[in-house]
Amino acid sequence: MTTSLIINGAAGRMGKRIITLAREAGTFRLVGAVDLPQHPDLGKDIGCLAGLENLGVPLSDKLEGKADVVIDFSSPQAADATIDFCRKTSTPLVLGTTGLSKEQLLKVSSAATKIPIVQSTNMSQGMNLLFAIVGKVAKALGPDYDIEIVEAHHRFKKDAPSGSALSLAEAICKEAGLDYPGSLTFGREGKEALRQKGTIGIHAVRAGDIVGRHSVLYSTLGETITIEHNAHSRDTLARGAIRAAEWVATQKPGLYKMLDVLGLNE
């Protein structure tokens, strides 16, 4: 069985890798490739842009046509059009775009009453295992352990902290009984910047071509426990998105996470 696929953000780094790996999987048929209206490569074949053979799919600035699933790795500014298109055409959606506003998140929830949506700040299988366990670790260790989250990404990443760092913090708060996002502290500076009990520090590093590194530190007087995930390439995220696309195409309407795709919510 072949799954027809539209990708929004197709000419970006993630979009190109998703196209390449979906092609290698042999179970997808690309029927649409979309990017920003001002993109210099509009009209060019997306296969050639991704370093593949000609796929007969030109890069477009419009979401149109029919597909079994849409994968969106675009930008917060472009995500609204994707959500509207999928809802109007009853197309399942994999939404990997981060930095969405509260209004957009509400829009996603509303659309999920009509169509199945997998939304995750990180599609990596390993990263989602962290999402599943970091809260349980915090609960087991108790309030005497200070918790800090450090995330590092490439110099081109726009949003900070990363959506994955916020997801880690949210999972910890849920299990540890802390307020989210009220208990979060974003970096520290000044002469009176002592750590406050019951807070979670989040720190963002932007440097070079770091794909993605997330560390959660649990520290008390006498010991420190660190749980860390390193993404070696974008392929781990792309493979997760492809797995999510195969899964969501057969689901009922609802808002799902990668934890659901991986069976970690069962």
Can you put this structure into words, describing what you see?
This protein has 266 residues and is of the alpha/beta class. The protein folds into 2 domains: 3-119 and 234-261, NAD(P)-binding Rossmann-like Domain (Rossmann fold); 125-231, Dihydrodipicolinate Reductase, domain 2 (2-Layer Sandwich), CATH 3.30.360.10. It contains 8 helices and 12 strands. The strands form 2 sheets. Strands 3-2-1-4-5-6-12 form a 7-stranded parallel sheet, sandwiched between helices. A hairpin with a 2-residue loop joins strand 10 (212-220) and strand 11 (223-231). The protein is elongated, with a radius of gyration of 19 Å.
Any descriptors?
single chain, about 270 residues, alpha/beta, Rossmann fold, Dihydrodipicolinate Reductase, domain 2, seven-stranded parallel β-sheet, five-stranded mixed β-sheet, 8 helices, about 35% helix, elongated
- Spatially, the strands of the biggest sheet line up as 3-2-1-4-5-6-12
Helix vs. strand class? alpha/beta
Kindly estimate the percentage of residues that lie in beta strands according to DSSP.
15-25%
Write down the Rg: 19 Å
Question: CATH topology of the largest domain, which one?
Answer: Rossmann fold
* Second CATH tier, the architecture of the largest domain: 3-Layer(aba) Sandwich
Low-confidence stretches at least 5 residues in length (pLDDT < 50)?
A: none
Number of domains: 2
Binned, the helix content reads 25-40%
- What's the level 1 CATH class of the largest domain? Alpha Beta
| CATH H-tier superfamily of the largest domain | NAD(P)-binding Rossmann-like Domain
Net shape: elongated
Tally of separate helices:
8
Number of strands: 12
